[in-house]
Structures are given as C-alpha cells and as structure tokens.
Amino acid sequence: MAAKTRADLLKRLDPYWKMEAANVLLVPAFLVWLADGKVGWITLVPLAATVLLLVIGALYWWGKVRQLRGAGSGFPALLRRLGAWKTPALVLTLAGCATALAGWWVPAWSAGLADRNVATVCAVLAVLEYVNYYHRQLQHFDSREDFRRLLSGKGFRRSWLARDLQGIARNARGGAA
Q: Which residues, in sequence order, are CB contacts of 136 under 8 Å at separation 6+?
C-alpha cells in the first residue's frame, strides 16, 4: 500500500513544479496582455512579488518530488534557502500591496485603469501565493481528500512547505522530526 500511496502522491505532485515554473512566464505575459502592454511601476512591484513566490513554489515542488523519489539529498539545504526567503517574500508582497493601492490613491502614478487593475490582481495573487506556501494550503481542488476536509469544516491545513520548514527547524534544535 505504501508504494501505491507514494506513486499516487508522486503522480499528483510532479506536475506542480512544472506548472509553477511555467506560470513564472505565463502569468506576467497574460497580465501584461490584459493591460494591453500598458503597465507602469505600480504593476511591476506586485508582479515581482508574484513571480518570486511562483519561483519559490516551483523550487519547493521540484525538491519535494525529488525527495519522494529518493533523490532529494539536497532537500534540507533547499528548504533552508526557501525558509530564508520567507521574510523577503513577505516584504515584497506587502510592498506590492502598498504599490497597488498607491495606484488607486494617486491615479497619475499609473499607466491607466488597466494598469491599476493588473497591479491589484498581482497583489492579490502574491498574498494568496505567500499564504499558500508559507502558512496554509489554499488549494483544495486537486485532491478529493483535501476537498472533503475543507467541506467538513476542519479548515485549511498547514501548507506542505510550512510543515517541512517546521521539521527543519525542529531538527536544527535537536528535536525529533
């Protein structure tokens, strides 16, 4: 049963890193297209936060899949690096939110309504990605078990990355994994 479970888990998780890596390019291209190419600096800051978090996600899932395949000897080092990016990602996300809001408060700072809309979308995406990776798993549509858990009222579980970072911290303190 364990081999089947691991195989099922790998089948479900392997596309994640590829999807996140593709989104590093596709999300900005799509959002710039939505703004008819008219994006200003108010979009670039929250877009940078979104892209950073997509890169973090791609690296995490790539490492997790390698670990599950037994080829992840460098996974703890990767986790420490991703953990070190938690605060910079939060700062950039908050800066992106502030920048997007500034575009609404001072419309002259933006390249127009589409720019303000795209900046807002980027800021919301960055917040969602940050929470989804570093705190709570927000995605519940790809696993029947996760979806049932959500519908049962048990709430959102800790994200995979948050759990792995907690394990690394526990090991660094000399506690059980």
A: 156, 157, 158, 159, 162
